[in-house]
Structure formats: C-alpha cells, structure tokens
Write a structure and sequence with these properties.
The protein is an alpha+beta fold. Helices cover 24% and strands 20% of the residues.
Length: 551
C-alpha cells in the first residue's frame, strides 16, 4: 500500500517542508481474464518484455538491506525473501510460491506508505514492483496502461509527450502509481477534473482463489463486466487489500472514439505558481493567524462546488511551527485558465482581508507543465537521513471552528522549537464532488479541503517525543468528536486512506466509538468487505488496516 501520502500536494513533501522551515522463483502458468472476464493467454494482454528475469534477494545478499525500507525509515521488516518483479507473470509466480509456502505477502511499488503495511515484521515475502514502470496506450482496452512501479513523474511525462493528456494525480513525482491510484489519489488538477480514480477504467490484479491458485484478472467499470466489483474496490479502497495490481487502465468516463488524445483531460500548457509568505514574528498575533486560516477556509466553502470558476485554483496553506519563522500560501493554476488572473487576485484578497498584517512577500512564477509536474524530483520529506515521520489527516466539509483554530495556534506556537512540524490545509472538492459517494470507493464527495498534520525527524531516539506531540495536537483539534474527524460531522468527513494512521484504530486515541473503517470508507465499507470475501477468500492480502472479511 502506498501513500500518498501528503506527497499528493502541489509541491511535494521535500519542498513543502523546506519552505516551512525544514521530509529463486517457482512457476505456475498465469491465467489472465480479458475485458469480459474470459480466460485468455497471458500474451493477449499487451506487455513489454521485462527488463530482467525475476530476482530473489534473501538475507546475506549485499542488496538485501538496501531493499528493505520504503520512504519512512521508521518501519523496517526482515522478510525471508524480496522478490523483484518485472512482469505480471512474475508476480503471479511469486504470489503462488508465497501461498504454497505459507508466507505472508506484501507488495511495494513506490514505497511511500505512511504506516508499516510493507515493513511489517510479519511479512515474509516482499514484492518489489518498481521495475514494472511501463506507461503506454492499450488499443485493446481503448485506455492508457500504467504499471504500478511507474512514478507519477514518469506517468506525466509519457502522457504529455505522447498524447498531450494528463490525469489529476499527485504532485510528488517520485510516488509510485501502485498505491496512489488504488487509494483515490488527488493533486493540483483534482478540483478541476476530479480524483484520479474518476478516470480509472480498469485494473489488472493478481488474486488468489479459494483453492490457493494465483492468477491475474482484468476488471473494468463496464456495466456488463463480470468483475466490476473488483474494479470498484480499486477506486479508493486502498492497496494491499484484494490482490496485487499489475496494471491500471485509464480513460475518462464518457470519452468516446479511438483517438487517445481525447480519452483523458488535456494537459495544461503552462502552470502559474504563486507563493505568499508571512513572518512568524511578534506582529503575527493569534488573532491575525486565525483570521488568515479562517479566510482560507471560508473561500473554499464558497468556491468548491463542481463547475464553479474557483475550482481552477489549487491552494495550499502551509502552517509550520512558529520556530520555522515563516508560513506560506501556495496557489497553483493553469496559466491559461480563462479569467484566471482575476480569480487569483480575488482569492488572495479574500485570504488577506481583515488580518491586520501584510504579507512579507509574494512571488509568481510561470513554468512549463512538465517542469511543474516533474520537479523537484524526490518527493521525500527531507535529506537522505530525514526519513522518519508521522502524519495524520482529515477531510474538511466546513472551515475549522474558532475552538479548533485556537488549538492550531496553540500547538504551532508551543515549546520546544519544532521547525520540521507542519499543518497543511489543501484545496479539494470541485469536480471531485460531482461524483456520487457510492459510485467509487471514495466516499467523501462533499469535502472542500484536506488537512495534513505532520512532523519529521532524523533520529530514532526522537521517535517517542515527536509521535506524542503530533498525537496530542491532533486529539486537541478534534477533542469535540473523540479525538478523530468524524464522518458527516458539521466540520469533518473522516480521513483519507492514502494517509493511513493506525491511531484511528486505537481506542486510546479514538474515543469516539466510531470504528476506523467508517472514518476512511464510511458507508462503502460493507461493500468493500463483500469484494474482499469474493476475491481474497483466504485473506492472503492483509495489513494492519486492511479490509476485513465479513464476519
């Protein structure tokens, strides 16, 4: 499972936090299913030749330690083997071997999962899907094909260079498509074009039948498709729950014809990024700070309906700890958006109105689309050693209340200094909210913002202090609802599965009486359980917050 972590914001985790003041193979034939669910030969599904034959890395191999960790160095397992896969057939064989030997399985593509779903010590076979990075057009499915190891930057580059199209996915170019897509990824164009899963036509998934046979099937959103439920589960149900995704098929709903350049949203030609900064000094009183945050939320409440002009803007308010000495408002938009200049001017006026403080500076920069989507490149939360972090998240249906704003200010100005701690309020809604809550597995379809609380550090000895701080902060903000963002609350609507947080399943930190799965999936959870029962009857694919089979 991936994250997406807060890497789906406009700038990517490294740049955001820097700005805030700083994160031997057995074999079995691979049976595949075609668009109508019929069994077909493996070669019937277009696939590039793998870059190398299957690789198995075990303890003692010089490569082993380097392949253990994902992006968050807090989590590291000790699997019996790491299977580096280059094709669907190789994944089928690896899964079959693990099932036969009784080994727990986890699959990793980009490695950006926020929790230990792939670094769990219980995992005995770790599948590394990063070599599976092919992106292209599949005429058979009349859709673009993306393998899970393709990074978002690679996806953007290929779609743009080949066909001038794009998808509304995340802003961290090194995040892998694998978990990002399955969890309902979003990014700078989502207010305009929806979630990435709103453009997901199908998935190729390696599943395990009740008799223990591993096979690959293709499931699409076609109304007469026999495997439609498996497609639906991957439109926001999260990774690591039903099988191993080996290919995504992308085509916008309602897109017609055979011209690939008309099957996904057109890429912008240029992107305009505007950055407004304020000094975190004595002039920035609590009243001024809360006014800025309140104004930001109020603007989103007025400008997040599907089709409204304001959905052309993608704003992020970055609120680091006061010890960072500065905080930021970042706005991205298509530089050629009709009326965009006026929209931007009005937005900036709305955020700064009545605050009593002037911004320390404002910069505007227009860049090409490819530069905006492939730079700064790493998407990591800091330097090579700054890989320990703990995020928490929430959907917002309304702006924060005065009590919640006071809690934000209190924790962002406390002692000791925490220059690598930050809260991000991220523009959401717009075209995302044009989709019914049950049409995909993403149930939150009337939100206006996402909130991300995050702290990063580089020394294991600091784990307890940093985790305790972010837990207390989050619980204080949501003190009125049992320490968590309740779904369908006046302000909140649960949380986002690509930002998984095991605390939401811990009664010490979730005292609301509402189970964790309701926070992430709301009313879609029973349907996800039925899909789980059908497609993973042996519960082969599981982790600390996986979909549970129906009782």
């Amino acid at each position: 499972m991936e994250r997406q972590t807060s890497g789906e914001d406009a700038l990517g985790r490294r740049q955001l936090l820097a700005r805030a003041g700083a994160v031997a193979v057995g074999g079995v034939a691979a049976g595949l299913a075609g668009p109508a669910g019929e069994a077909v030969a493996a070669e019937a599904v277009p696939s590039a030749a793998p870059a190398f034959t299957p690789v198995t890395v075990r303890p003692g191999d010089r490569r082993y330690d380097s392949l253990l960790r994902g992006n968050n160095f807090r989590f590291v397992g000790h699997p019996d083997e790491i299977r580096v896969c280059g094709s669907t057939e190789q994944v089928v064989r690896a899964v079959q071997d693990a099932v036969r030997s009784g080994r727990r399985i986890a699959a990793r593509s980009g490695g950006h999962c926020f929790e230990n779903f792939t670094g769990d010590p219980a995992v005995r076979t770790l599948l590394d899907l990063s070599p599976m990075d092919e992106v292209g057009y599949d005429a058979r499915h009349r859709a673009f094909s993306v393998q899970p190891g393709a990074t978002l930057g690679h996806v953007y580059r290929t779609l743009f260079k080949g066909w001038g199209v794009t998808i509304p996915a995340g802003g961290c170019p090194e995040v892998g498509a694998g978990g990002h897509f399955a969890g309902g990824g979003y990014g700078p164009l989502s207010r305009r074009y929806g979630s990435v899963v709103d453009h997901l036509h199908g998935v190729e998934v390696v599943v395990v039948d009740r008799d223990g046979t591993a096979r690959a099937v293709v499931a699409t959103r076609d109304s007469d498709g026999p495997h439609r439920d498996l497609w639906w589960a991957h439109t926001g149900g999260g990774g690591g729950n039903f099988g191993v995704v080996t290919r995504y098929f992308l085509r916008s709903p309602g897109a017609s014809g055979d011209d690939p350049s008309r099957l996904l949203p057109p890429s912008p030609r240029r992107m305009l990024r505007t950055v407004v900064s304020w000094a975190w000094d004595d002039r920035m009183t609590e009243k001024s700070f809360t006014a800025i945050v309140r104004n930001f939320g109020a603007w989103h409440e007025r400008n997040s309906a599907p089709g409204s002009p304001g959905t052309g803007l993608y704003p992020i308010l970055l609120l680091p700890h006061r010890s960072a000495r500065v905080f930021y408002l970042v706005v991205q938009m298509d530089a050629d958006l009709p009326g965009g200049d006026r929209l931007l001017t009005d937005f900036l006026s709305a955020v700064t109105e009545g605050t009593g403080v002037e911004p320390a500076g404002t910069t505007r920069r227009t860049t090409s689309w490819l530069h905006a989507t492939t730079w700064p490149g790493s998407g990591e939360p800091g330097g090579i050693d700054d890989r320990r972090y703990k995020p928490k998240a929430a959907y917002l249906r309304r702006p924060y209340t005065d009590r919640q704003l006071a809690a934000l200010h209190r924790h962002l100005t406390d002692s000791p200094p925490r220059p690598n701690a930050v809260v991000l309020l991220i523009g959401y809604g717009g075209q995302v909210n044009a989709v019914r809550p049950d049409a995909t597995a993403v149930a939150q379809r009337d939100s206006i913002m996402k909130a991300v609380f995050q702290t990063i550090w580089d020394d294991e000895s600091d784990d307890d202090a940093n985790i305790a701080w972010i837990r207390a902060f989050y619980r204080d903000v949501y003190a009125d609802t049992g320490g968590v963002p309740l779904p369908d609350d006046a302000v909140s609507d649960g949380s986002y599965i690509n930002y998984p947080d095991r605390d939401l399943a811990d009664p010490q930190w979730n005292t609301s009486g509402v189970p964790w799965h309701a926070l992430y999936y709301k009313g879609n959870y029973p349907r996800l359980q039925r899909v789980k029962a059908r497609w993973d009857p042996r519960d082969v694919f599981r982790h600390a917050m996986s979909i549970e089979p129906p009782s």
